[in-house]
Amino acid sequence: MTDTMPPDLLEHALAAKGFMPPDEGELLHRVARERLRHGPALEVGTYCGKSAVYLGAAAREVGGPDSVVFTVDHHRGSEENQAGWEHHDTSVVDPEVGLMDTLPTFRRTMARAGLEEHVVAIVGRSKVVAAHWRTPLSLLFIDGGHGEQPARDDFEGWAHWVDLGGYLAIHDVFPDPADGGRPPYELIYLPAIASGAFEEIEAVGSMRVLRRASGSAGQAL
Q1: Cα angle 27, 29, 34; round to 5
Q2: Residue 169 forms beta bridges with which residues?
Q3: pTM for this one?
Q4: 3-class DSSP assignment, residue 61
Q5: What per-residue confidence (pLDDT) applies to 34?
Q6: Exposure of 159 in the CB half-sphere (CA atoms within 13 A)
Q7: Average pLDDT, the chain
Q8: Would you say residue 90 has pLDDT above 80?
């Protein structure tokens, strides 16, 4: 395997609707390829599937029954995706109910990329799904709602499922307030470091990758 994304899937990732810069997506793909040999990965925050293409590409490359990516989202959009906010997209609003519904777009993205066998969608709120989750993770990627409570819930609900040696990737980490919103930095990244269970190993743009250096999956942080 090469160090770069397969050209066919990179084309799909770049074309997909979403907010993942290419260099950060390539980092996500690379760390997923490293970790999927050791167990499943899980993404919090699916939106329309852009980052899931990067993750799914790694799963396809690694192969095997344990190389699978779960992606969790209620598909009604985060706070910043709602009407009146900067990232609202009327093309993903269901006219019948008047609410966002990104699930059909996500499914089309996976079908076009040929990744339906590698990426498993879990439709539900992160906090509810996390409360019933029991599987250790080789990689956890948190890119869910960027409000204070969603960020806090994502960290508290999922980070402890990262196995020893596994990775926690966090998107939209902005140490400088002038660069972006605070919750992913203040309520996910900083608590992970402060817990003593994680150490930062790589950063590209707003993406941070941490390795679990102590404890075991399921153990409270």
Answers
A1: 95
A2: 141, 209
A3: 0.92
A4: helix
A5: 96
A6: 32
A7: 92
A8: no
